[in-house]
Design a protein that fits this description.
Blueprint lengths: L6 E4 L5 H12 L3 E6 L2 H13 L3 E6 L5 H14 L5 E4 L14 H28 L3 E6 L3 H4 L5 H21 L4 E8 L2 E2 L4 H4 L5 H7 L6 E2 H12 L10 E4 L7
Parallel strand pairs: 1-2, 1-4, 2-3, 4-5, 5-6, 6-9, 7-8
EC number: 1.1.1.-
Enzyme class: oxidoreductase
Protein name: SDR family NAD(P)-dependent oxidoreductase
Length: 249
């Protein structure tokens, strides 16, 4: 197993890409601390992981709150005693034209998409340093690489995730802490499926990619697993698109 004996915190693990990552990490031997603002959702995921023989803990978590992050890492310390991996996955997207976005839209998007990553990184690095190193994987977006119509605040926030990733990789590499970003493209999740698989819109999304099919959450999880694992020991500061070839165009 690729993560045997590792402890991993995964935010936004109650559904979608976070859920797929939590399930895959547990299958690969990690003890997963799965967090989400949706308490029942993340509890359901953890119960399913345990039923299949995996090790997982569910924690209700608001990534915008420092106090909530303290609760998460208090649980990590009390239950696991160490931290090897942090996956900053929690995020939101507001589908609203740039000129219509309000200061409140902008602030909420940034609080979740970038402040949450910053806070998680601040709490994870001291624990990882005590343990001799670790891996942080931040979920950004292809919009951070190419731009995306109709989502100005989202695009800007995911660009910030990309830059924060590189900054942390440089600042903490000597402590053997690797920091990388994954950039999903058009991925079918419970949140996106009503749009991406809608008969009126699906062909539009398919036209954006080079491959014949839209992406799946477990394909993103596989990329996160690689970067989190010891197989990526000499990889830090990169952006890894999982986008079916969108950025190749």
């Amino acid at each position: 197993m690729r993560l045997q004996g590792k402890v991993a915190v995964i935010t936004g693990a109650g559904s979608g890409m976070g859920e797929s990552t939590a399930r895959l990490f547990a299958k690969e031997g990690a003890t997963v601390v799965a967090t989400d603002i949706n308490e029942q959702g993340v509890k359901n995921v953890v119960e399913s992981i345990r039923a299949q023989g995996g090790e997982a803990i569910a924690v209700k978590h608001d990534v915008t709150s420092r106090a909530s992050w303290e609760d998460v890492f208090a649980e990590v310390g009390a239950t696991c005693g160490k931290l090897d991996i942090l996956v900053n996955n929690a995020g939101i997207a507001l589908a609203k034209p740039f000129l219509e976005q309000t200061e409140e839209d902008w602030a909420r998007t940034y609080r979740i998409n970038i402040d949450g990553v910053m806070l998680g990184t601040q709490y994870a690095i001291p624990l990882m340093t005590e343990n001799g190193g670790g891996s942080i994987v931040n979920i950004s977006s292809i919009s951070a690489l190419t731009g995306m119509a109709g989502a100005g605040a989202y695009t800007a926030s995911k660009g910030a995730v990309r830059s924060l990733t590189k900054a942390a990789a440089v600042d903490y590499g000597k402590q053997n802490i690797r920091v990388n970003s994954v950039h999903p493209g058009y991925i079918v999740t419970p949140m996106s499926a009503p749009h991406m698989e809608h008969p009126d819109y699906k062909q539009h999304f398919l036209n954006q990619i080079a491959l014949p099919n839209l992406g799946q959450a477990d394909e993103v999880a596989a990329a996160v697993l690689f970067l989190a694992s010891d197989e990526a020991n000499h990889i830090s500061g990169i952006e890894l698109p999982v986008d079916g070839g969108v950025t190749a165009k």
